[in-house]
Design the sequence.
């Protein structure tokens, strides 16, 4: 699953881009301003950032510079109404990987997005060894100490998000957005809690005292990094 972050203050455009890009292997989270964008980037990891430049509380260029200053090499596409050559050069020199001026075709945007998502995918292993566990999300093979574990598709999606962000708390809202991408607004409030409980029952030695899938009270959940 590829996870895209979209920073766009135009609600209608943001919704349209999110719908155009979301699919079986792609999820999109959209935020309308720099403040909310920084919150999202602090608690989650993404495969691609799409940043609007002109925002009510500043410039997407500032966020891009911050991301690059922190050593984050996540691909970034800038969206802007500024079509001067100097604006494009400024964006690319700030660390952007691509630059798209408004108005633009959603088909062109999808093609540019797919090109960025393909970067380096051959270098990424889908098999992860975490403590006593081995998780291969592409082959849907999950094991603890060599013993196979059967997981539902929903459990797999939740586990992957937590394991890929291990050591970091992921909020309940973010988990719902990413696990139930095909209509999260209709998910019952306790659906996430039920899925976590089932996952613990399959992975933890003592589900009542979880060692790995831990609750971060007031925030959400985390996959603990064991020494």
Sequence:
């Amino acid at each position: 699953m590829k996870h895209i972050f979209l920073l766009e203050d135009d609600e209608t455009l943001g919704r349209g881009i999110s719908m155009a890009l979301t699919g079986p292997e792609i999820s999109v989270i959209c935020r309308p301003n720099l403040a909310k964008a920084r919150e999202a980037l602090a608690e989650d990891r993404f495969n691609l950032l799409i940043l609007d430049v002109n925002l009510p509380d500043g410039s997407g260029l500032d966020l891009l510079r911050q991301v690059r200053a922190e050593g984050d090499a996540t691909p970034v596409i800038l969206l802007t109404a500024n079509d001067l050559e100097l604006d494009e050069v400024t964006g690319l020199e700030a660390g952007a990987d691509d630059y798209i001026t408004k108005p633009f075709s959603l088909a062109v945007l999808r093609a540019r997005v797919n090109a960025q998502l393909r970067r380096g995918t051959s270098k990424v292993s889908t098999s992860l060894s975490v403590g006593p566990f081995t998780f291969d999300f592409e082959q849907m093979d999950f094991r603890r100490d060599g013993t196979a574990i059967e997981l539902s598709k929903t459990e797999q999606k939740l586990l992957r998000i937590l394991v890929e962000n291990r050591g970091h708390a992921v909020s309940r809202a973010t988990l719902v957005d990413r696990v139930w991408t095909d209509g999260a607004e209709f998910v019952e409030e306790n659906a996430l809690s039920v899925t976590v409980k089932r996952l613990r029952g399959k992975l933890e030695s003592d589900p009542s005292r979880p060692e790995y899938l831990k609750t971060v009270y007031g925030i959400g959940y985390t996959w603990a990094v064991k020494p």
Observations:
- The domain at 2-121 is CATH 3.40.50.2300 (Rossmann fold).
